[in-house]
Amino acid sequence: MVIDFDGHVLGMANFPGTAYIPSSIVLKCLDMWKKFQCIPRLHIGMKLSPIKFLDPIHVERIFRKCNIDSGLIVKEVSHGSIAEELGVRPGDVVDSVNGECVATTVELENLIMRICENHLDQGGAIGSCMDILVGILHMRKGRKGPRHTLSLRLNVSDDVEVFISDF
């Protein structure tokens, strides 16, 4: 557990790794488990990293070249994923999902969990597909390209996402 100086639980950490799960995500997972007996997930086919948590020099460089200072940098795209098929590449920047701005992976995770919960509340099922809109800035050769809104048809699953890396 990660606890602040006042004794409040902030989240969970996985040592010796660097994974940190905020308490908001842990509590949402518990709520969804109670409600659905599973934790539904969308398999987005991308590994992402927030711009705002890069070192300040890197953030400044991105801002000067591309005039952006928030969003999620695509670090990796799963081979064979819908994201790969639609042309998403490492270095692209995701700035919104279903019209909501996302600047951190925690914001993205909360949004995805809310989307899944709404889908199941409205009669959707595990194993069904749903469309989400992803706002993305294509970055090519170190320059900002056009902004696109991609419609990703994703599987609602209660299993882990298998990520296939190119070798």
From TrEMBL:
<feature type="domain" description="PDZ">
    <location>
        <begin position="73"/>
        <end position="112"/>
    </location>
</feature>
<dbReference type="InterPro" id="IPR041489">
    <property type="entry name" value="PDZ_6"/>
</dbReference>
<dbReference type="InterPro" id="IPR036034">
    <property type="entry name" value="PDZ_sf"/>
</dbReference>
<dbReference type="Pfam" id="PF17820">
    <property type="entry name" value="PDZ_6"/>
</dbReference>
<protein>
    <recommendedName>
        <fullName>PDZ domain-containing protein</fullName>
    </recommendedName>
</protein>
